[in-house]
Amino acid sequence: MSKACLVDLTRCIGCRGCQVACKQWNKLPAETTEFFARSGGYQNPPALSTKTYTLVTYNEIEDSSGRVNWVFSKRQCMHCLEPSCVSACLVKALEKTKEPEGPVVYHENLCMGCRYCMIACPFDIPKFEYEKAIPSIRKCTFCFDRQEDGEMPACAKACMTGAILYGERNELLDVAKSRIYSDPDDKYVHHIYGEHEAGGTAWMYISDAPFEDLGFPMNVGTTPYPRFTSTFLGAVPQIIILWAGLLTGFHWFVKRREEVAEEELTNTEKEG
Amino acid sequence: MKITPFNIIAGILLIVGFIIIVFRFSLGLGAVTNLNQENPWGLWIGFDVLCGVTLAAGGYVIASAVHLFGLKDYRIVLRSAILTGFLGYFFVVVGLMFDLGRPWRLPYPMFVSLGAQSVMFLVAWHVALYLTVQFLEFSPAVFEWINWKTAHKWASRILAGACIAGVILSTLHQSALGALFLLAPTKVHPLWYSPLIPIFFFVSSIIAGLSMVIFESTLSHRIFKNQVDPAQHEQLNRVTLGLGRAASVGLLCYFFLKLVGLAHDGTWDLLGTPMGTWFLVEILIFVLLPCFLFAWGVRNKNMSLVRFTALLTVIGIVINRLNISVIGFNIDATERYFPSWMEFAVTIAIVTLGLVTFRWIVNRMPVLREHPEYEEAL
Q1: Given CB 3.0 to 4.6 Å as the disulfide criterion, which of A244, B8, B291, B320 pairs with B251?
Q2: Owning domain of residue B116
């Protein structure tokens, strides 16, 4: 059974209680912020960082009647079912946990700081401490330390409107579908972001505004990312075996030709 | 060491690079680089590592020509090609040490925590193994220098085996460097992203290796004139023409592979965009043009044209690697990356250190010349 979260963006009021709870639980330092730092207006800080694992984005969305609404979207690591970052890490510093299943966690004691996980993540989640002499990667942990004790993540616990639901992934998918398809006004976009994205993620979203307008990457596809390199990696032993055989054979072939040529030369010399 | 203009400039470049590296290790990567959260790899990976490995491919290319294909006359460029390869890889690792957040954990993928599902793991192992293989391939020159006959005999015996191991390792990590980017389908520009990228990297490494050997041997024979036997210098022209011919065929293959890549990925329509123009510049001016120039130069025995074309090809491969890793990478990012002057300075310092080391070795060991007591040795 896999643990997951469902965020119903129609219920988010932008209070940022989840952001504060995340900072408190993970003991993350504050960031100097300013209003209108980016087009997000009151969105603060402007982006996820090494000090901010989760962020409520502020999006101004025009509805069908031409009225501009604020739609808030809580962002953090998506905790992919088959994470690209885990398949990228050469020292297993990133791990998809088994018990409970769901979180993608980071082991600081193993990381080399190569930053390949940042290249690999389609959601641009892992952040690197460029300002430190001994740097680490920082990202949302899905509160693995809380989940181990049977607690829900700090952000979900703090959400007072029930916009963040925590539970079993398949059950949350049922909730999401029933909300989308039984809504009297049919206000939801008919899409559960995260159901299939990048092969499926533990964090999923339903919304009444199009996901592309909320800054969600729409080009990530549905293929689990590790598959992009598995063909190549699978071919490696084949190439080693084939090359070893072919090249050794070729080496003997050339050597034999040289020997034969030499023999012929000595034979002609003898005859002559 | 004599005081010459080259030595003075090299000394200054090395000191500047050293000071920047002290800052980098005491204050973090952010203090000296322009890297940011959206562009985690910059000049040091794009040039020092990706180009460094590709341009060091001459070692395995010439070694297989001599040891496996029996092209004995290419022996005159063998040792310098292997030395260039060995130093190339060595300084790739040096450059990587500056870029890694925690370089003291370099042995971790080997001995502590083995992430074998990662392409990077493959790269790490193969570069480490190939560095060892190249040292073995170069060791006869070292043993001749210190005149240790027994060791020389043993080292010469394993050359063919080492060469086969070297080709296997090179095939895999040259292509693996391309395969690294398979995990970034939304970030590498679609004109450069392709499932065939490992093949592109491997084939272009052969071309880069051939061109670098032409380029390097031209310079070596000029700079280290006193080292080179006049008879060998005569032969160099013939070998250069052979290398040029091979590079011409390689470039033609590579050009068509890239076209097939476009067809396979269905990205023809992107050729009309500004990045499409840049892509066409890469494959027409830096792939197809040198292909014809090599062919023309070889046919007319125009040595300076062949040598110029080698340089053009090398530049083209550098552009290709940078297009994938830096220039076309995350092109829609809110923060675009351009290297800081300090990143350039460190890169230049590493290249300088490579050249100085090359000179130090060539002036002492039998690389360009043959050791009179070991004439039979390869």
Answers
A1: B291
A2: 5-362
